[in-house]
Amino acid sequence: MSVVTSKLKNFVKSRKLNVFLIFFILAFFILVLARLSASYTSTVKFNVTLDNIPDEMIVLNDSSNVLNFTMTADGFEWMQYYTKTPSVVIDFKNEIKKIDSLYVWSLSRGYAGINGQFNKDIVVKTINPDTLLFKVDINAVKTIPVRPNLNISYSPGYNVLNTIVAVPDSVKIIGPESLLSKIDVIETEVLNKNDVNKPFSSQLALKLENLESQITVKTKTVNVQVKAEKFTEGTLSLPVNIINIPKNINVNYFPKTINLSYYTSLESYNTIDINDFEVVCDFKEHNSKSTYLSPKLIRAPKAIKTSRLHEQKIEYIISE
After folding, report:
1. Is the pTM of this model over 0.70?
2. 147-170 pLDDT, tens per residue?
3. How many domains does the chain have?
4. What is the largest CA-CA distance in the chain?
5. Torsions phi, psi for 188 (to 5 deg)
6. Confidence of residue 36 (pLDDT cuts 50, 70, 90)
7. CA–CA dist 93, 59 (Å, integer)
8. How far apart are CA 63 and CA 47, in angstroms?
9. Which of 110, 137, 164 represents a domain boundary (last residue)?
10. Where a domain ends, among 202, 227, 252?
């Protein structure tokens, strides 16, 4: 027995076994390659995925429709279909037609779109069934403004010139009209920033957790851009005009100019001009118990953040 065991050990250690194994492995791979290179015809099931569905439509049975493809392809191509269930895309907008209350896909209408999704080495022989039916429900679509929820404090002397808005500043929501009518705005999650003294942008998620489950919002995040910059204060002396004076009345008033302080960015300071402002008093507001009118700033450039008139009263005298 020990003699037989010894001979087996010597054979295993010999080069003859190594050569045998090498040729066996090479022969196996050549056989596999030959099998994979050959063409085969078979039938495989494809799931159907719909593309370009209008926002207001919900397809109720999109997961129940499948197509069976009988195809000829080599083994390499067939391998991808056996590893996972394949899918094919149908263009809802261009390849599906409404007939009565149903939406219908037909092979005659959609064959070109289907066949174009396969490479030239695959020959599609038949597709079954030749018709698919889709049930569709119609929902309302409403465009809702987005309100950034910001908690920002700026470093001394810094601010933003314009109102901070989200990009996009509104989103589409889809659902039953009775539910959409109750929604007027969608807020973002809270953004907290302290001592801001330079521009920055941030991606914020929309607060959607309180929406009804029947409501769909495709946009989940928005971007806010905060252009923080150095600010300064300026002062101008502006003329005051009285409007709506009857033709038979003369009005003398004092002062005829008043000072205005404004807050603007350092970058915009040199663009501010006295002609960009207009201060008026409306004579219709006068009464016999008062001898003054209230000045109002009715025109100002967009480049100022805030403004303040130093005088709140304009004395006047009426003469016939």
Report:
1. no
2. 999 999 999 999 999 889 999 999
3. 3
4. 144
5. -90, 170
6. very low
7. 13
8. 8
9. 137
10. 227
